[in-house]
């Protein structure tokens, strides 16, 4: 089986669509179909069930995918690493972060540097209106986000850290002087929206209170700058993470603990088809040191 045919098989196994597979690999759908038929003849069995409405892996196809995928990724990354060495380029791991609390990750980054000398970690800002887009576009290699992550094309690593949830309000807001608030209080407030996908947003910013009351949806924001601008004027409030009290202290903003909010959990995630040795090292460090309580 040729390397290009393996790539076609693995891509089709992920996309389950001949047209999208062809577009991703810059080939024709006929070339995809030809490669799959060639593999099926060589193996002696069907790898995909194909109808006019769907494409899905057979049990044999799933077995082949599970066996081939790790070997293919290791081979591809070995070639890429050799090419970087030949060009004199250092190894780089691009870490996407929604927040900028890099100091909280210092133990993990320090240990990573010790285990993988010569690999530079570069931080990249990621918006929370579509946090996984940069992973899928290949502009970041690994992403740190809050759980849950329910994306079938992404691998979720160990929990990196945990922290309480707080309500961010204007310093002049009626709740600013409270010792704590409840998620029930959100039914009487306008709450910032914008994080996507919905299940991921719901873990932090619920659409209903624990008793089932509707939480009024306010303006959509995509980053911290927009969030603080909306909250500071009293236009809306927003559940957020406790590290903001240390990293984003402002005279016009108050942070009030949400007493019935569970601890948030943050984890690294990455594209399953783009896992590298550097990513595995980072995940191993996080597993050994974490979860870090923030």
Question: Would you kindly provide a written description of the structure presented here, covering whatever features stand out?
Answer:
- With 294 residues, the chain is of the alpha/beta class.
- It folds into 3 domains: 3-85, Arc Repressor Mutant, subunit A (Orthogonal Bundle); 90-162 and 265-293, 3-Layer(aba) Sandwich (D-Maltodextrin-Binding Protein, domain 2), CATH 3.40.190; 165-262, D-Maltodextrin-Binding Protein, domain 2.
- The chain is 38% helix and 23% strand.
- The protein contains 10 helices and 13 strands.
- The protein has a 6-stranded mixed beta sheet with strand order 4-3-5-12-6-13. Strands 10-7-11 form a 3-stranded antiparallel beta sheet.
- The N and C termini lie far apart (49 Å).
- The mean pLDDT is 92.
Radius of gyration over all CA atoms, rounded: 23 Å
The dominant shape is: globular
Strand content: 15-25%
Q: Within the largest sheet, what's the order of strands?
A: 4-3-5-12-6-13
Per DSSP E runs of 2 or more residues, the count of β-strands stands at: 13
Look up the CATH topology of the largest domain.
D-Maltodextrin-Binding Protein, domain 2
Largest sheet: 6 strands, mixed
- Helix and strand run: HHHEEHEHEHEEEEHEHEHEEHE
